């Protein structure tokens, strides 16, 4: 994108969704929570990979999209063998799109977590052979979150390959009692954020980040509220019953600062960005647009004009992504 000064700054978006004709059915749960005409439009744009999308990227000044399958994606498949086959196929497709458009696209793999060993192998193949730069996981997989002991093998592989796992929201299992009778609270406006922040906290309190201290976790939507909560997490952890849980680092905020990287996806607002900068530091904040659910040009305009230093803007726009994803 072009800065106010006229200087060009490479810009990389990390939450940039797509879907394929074979996999559109998995999006049914998202379809039910969006206004029908908005969903029709989003569905059309999700299916476009290199037409209108590239033109929109050019217009918005977005150089590179790190593509990911739209939520809930492969996670919604109930048959493990089908999940394994479809994840491999969609990762192959991603690799070919990336190869055909040098510099314009990178990709996060889809993982068939229904079969943990196969998911670990697919992550290895996606990174080592296909050149993808990590994986994106949409909330639970058939009720299982990433702190499940069976999924340690996936963290072991991610840590070994030094690639991040991006935890993206999706509908939870069932409806929390507090939300019952309020379906308008289900979705990206509210429940997805608490669901996904909680997913990260399961990794902290479930011991994943003690077992894999070099694991790198990405959250979108400015960290799903976590940067705002650090002091309170620590103060109340020091006060309340631990139920036998021990944290090697002592306090929950230590894991957020060490293992968490966040993106600006879907949040074009200075106060939460400044909070995240103060809470996590500029090295842990990356750019994302949440295409096609948010306006790409509005996202780059926000990045271009956000009240941060030019050094921090460069980290958020591209330097952190280049380092974290090896771009
Ligand atoms: C998103 O990724 O943010 C998203 C969806 C589906 C509907 C709305 C939305 O995946 O914001
Ligand atoms: Zn998204």
Key phrases:
327 residues; alpha/beta; TIM Barrel; five-stranded parallel beta sheet; three-stranded parallel beta sheet; binds 2,6-dihydroxybenzoic acid; binds zinc ion
Please tell me about this protein's structure.
- By secondary structure, this protein is an alpha/beta fold.
- The chain has one domain (12-325): Metal-dependent hydrolases (TIM Barrel).
- It contains 13 helices and 8 strands.
- The strands form 2 sheets. A 5-stranded parallel β-sheet has the order 4-5-6-7-8. A 3-stranded parallel β-sheet has the order 1-2-3.
- Strand 2, helix 4 (80-100) and strand 3 form a beta-alpha-beta unit.
- Helix 5 packs parallel to helix 6.
- It is globular and about 55 Å long.
- The model has no long low-confidence stretch (mean pLDDT 97).
- The protein binds 2,6-dihydroxybenzoic acid and zinc ion.
- The site of zinc ion has 6 residues, from strand 1.
- Residues 15, 17, 168, 220, 265, 290 line the site of zinc ion.
């Amino acid at each position: 994108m072009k800065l106010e000064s006229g200087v060009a700054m490479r810009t990389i978006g990390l939450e940039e969704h797509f879907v394929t004709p074979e996999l559109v059915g998995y999006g049914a749960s998202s379809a039910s929570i969006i206004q029908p005409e908005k969903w029709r439009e989003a569905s059309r744009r999700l299916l476009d990979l290199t037409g209108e999308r590239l033109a929109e990227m050019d217009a918005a000044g977005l150089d590179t999209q790190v593509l990911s399958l739209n939520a809930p994606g492969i996670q919604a498949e109930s048959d493990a063998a089908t999940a394994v086959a479809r994840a491999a196929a969609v990762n192959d497709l991603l690799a070919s799109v990336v190869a055909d458009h040098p510099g314009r696209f990178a990709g996060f793999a889809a993982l068939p977590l229904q079969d943990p060993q196969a998911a670990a192998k697919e992550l290895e193949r996606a990174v080592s052979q296909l050149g993808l730069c990590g994986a994106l996981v949409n909330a639970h997989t058939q009720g299982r979150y990433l702190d499940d002991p069976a999924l340690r093998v996936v963290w072991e592989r991610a840590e070994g390959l030094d690639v991040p796992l991006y935890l993206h929201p999706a509908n939870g299992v069932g409806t929390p009692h507090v939300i019952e009778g309020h379906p308008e609270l289900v979705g990206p406006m509210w429940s997805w954020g608490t669901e996904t922040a909680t997913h990260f906290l399961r990794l902290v309190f479930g011991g994943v980040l003690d077992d894999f201290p070099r694991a790198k976790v990405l959250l979108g939507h400015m960290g799903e509220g976590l940067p705002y909560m650090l002091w309170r997490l620590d103060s109340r952890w020091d006060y309340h019953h631990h139920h036998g849980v021990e944290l090697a680092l002592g306090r929950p905020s230590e894991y957020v600062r060490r293992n968490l990287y966040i993106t600006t996806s879907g949040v074009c607002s200075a106060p939460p960005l400044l909070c995240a900068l103060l809470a996590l530091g500029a090295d842990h904040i990356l750019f994302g647009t949440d295409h096609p659910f948010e306006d790409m040009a509005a996202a780059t305009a926000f990045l271009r004009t956000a009240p941060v230093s030019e050094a921090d803007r460069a980290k958020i726009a591209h330097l952190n992504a280049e380092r974290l994803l090896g771009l």
